[in-house]
Amino acid sequence: MIWRELSGNTVSETRTTSSCSGRCVKRSESLRAQFLILMIVLQCIPVSSEHDGVSILVSESLASLIPTLPRVKEGNMRIILTSNTERLKNIISSYDVSFNILPKDEYNDKLIEKLDPHKLAYALLYASESLEEISVRDIFALINDTDKFEDKLSRGRDVSVLFYSSDGIEYSFLASYTALLRNASLLDAEFNFDPSLLRNVSYVIVVTRPLTKDNYQRYTRLLEIMTKIDDDPYIDTSFGFITGNYIETPFLMLLASELLQVPRELVGISLVEDLPLARKVERISSLMGLPSKIYHPDLSYSNLTGDLARSLLRGRSIIYLSLHGNPYVMALKSDEYPVITASTIRGSIIPGSIIITLSCDTLKFEDLINPEESVAYSFLDSGALAYIGSTKVEFSVGSEFGTSYPDLMLMLLMSGESLGDAVRIVNNLRIRESRGKSGEGAANELLLGDPTLKLRPNNLPFEVREEEGVYRIRIMNETPTIFLRVPERGSPSIDSDKPSLYSNWFEDDEGTFIYITTLSTAYAGYFSPGDKIEVEIRESVDFMKLLPYISILVIVLVTISILLKLPRGSRYYL
Hints:
Elements: E1 3-5, H1 22-43, E2 55-59, H2 62-65, H3 69-74, E3 77-81, H4 85-92, E4 99-101, H5 106-112, H6 117-130, H7 136-142, H8 150-153, E5 159-163, H9 169-181, E6 185-188, E7 203-207, H10 217-228, E8 238-242, H11 248-253, H12 256-259, E9 265-270, H13 275-287, E10 292-295, H14 306-312, E11 317-322, E12 324-326, E13 329-333, E14 336-341, H15 342-346, E15 354-357, H16 375-381, E16 386-390, H17 406-414, H18 419-434, H19 439-442, E17 445-448, E18 462-467, E19 470-475, E20 481-486, E21 491-496, E22 501-508, E23 511-518, H20 521-524, E24 533-538, H21 543-565
Parallel strand pairs: 1-4, 2-3, 2-4, 5-6, 5-7, 7-8, 9-10, 9-11, 11-15, 15-16
Antiparallel strand pairs: 12-13, 13-14, 16-17, 18-19, 19-24, 20-23, 21-24, 22-23
Helix pairs in contact: 6-9, 13-17, 17-18
């Protein structure tokens, strides 16, 4: 990793004065912007061939990053806005790419601070997509005309970025950068927001300050929209929140596609009572080509300490945690033996890692007062690309099935599903499992991360083929878990010679998703080559459509019953 710094002497500042005419100012700023871009092009040379063609620029100045936005659209530039360059260096020192530091543009930064955050976000996105070169002056010229292009920038794309203009200028800049990077539409949740614009979107990236007790309604409101946007209770659009205690944290999370395609290992910590499920996670990791090791406490609970936990937190890993938890701590027992706290994590640098937890309440934002004490945010601030956790209670005590489906989550990710889709699938299984709860009341899993991120896909340990309406699953390698998606909608009938199975499923616009896993494997074992598993889809009965006919039948039966009880010879006249 190489740092290059473009010093203030390299790129001189240009200030307007009363003696300079408007034409002189415009020409001076144009030349200044062109010169800055030229210096960037000459100095931004990636070190690693893995990231050839992509340069990363860092600055504490929002204004200095604006001229680089057209290159973001071209695909060969990524940027990071930071409040502390030295802190950022410590996090990204292990990244295998070159980083370049841009000088501050304090004069234009002060001018930008006075702008309307809502209008700034749309002006930045419009200029970045429409102009080959942009300067701060171009943004000033567009700021009062955003009503001319806001509607166009708010619809018609497969990905949407949702932001909150009350968060301020830096988050407006982050929102426009995210939309530019992901070719997304841009929506301000606090300004004429129309939830119907999310109806046919595949992904929603939410840009926000850290969620806490003061603003957690942002999450609950979005979840309510997602589960009630159509007639069924399921979530059709995958979403994730990019956030952190420092402004650079979400910018680092957006580097996921450049920094992480293949994790190097899976490492984890599990409660003793959850070990059967942890072994499943370990097995799936190995099947998918990922070295794995999950640690657990001994009988005295003395072998797992904060220092050991810190040593297990490494970069470019999938980190699996099955511990007791709340927003502030993860522990070996519900009331003692803390293993992971925010201070524990801050001692680690874990760039490019993904955290998957089977721990209660770590994302229960209504209980979080200080985000700097949050376990989840501390992981992200230390360089993790994503954190998948729960807003409520989770469990798997003594069983081989966990309510957060960590085995399925890992298998989905390693087979090429996006982070957002994997979390959405698990939440939909939970919604169906709840049988009567509202969708937002049952969907506990939440992604802090970019929902569009995908890992490089691996081969699954099974194959599925359809023959005359029956789906036959051929096991290629021993596995505890299988899943399949079929185009038909209905209730699956599963036939297998393997005893003690657990299954769940849900229907959506794409068909039916089915999850099957083994239980009691101590004597029955996992799915093995030669095992028979067949799935047949039976049409679901819509009882609501049958209700009128059922009502008529009930009335007829009641009438007949009354007539049969009448004395013989009785007459009734109408």
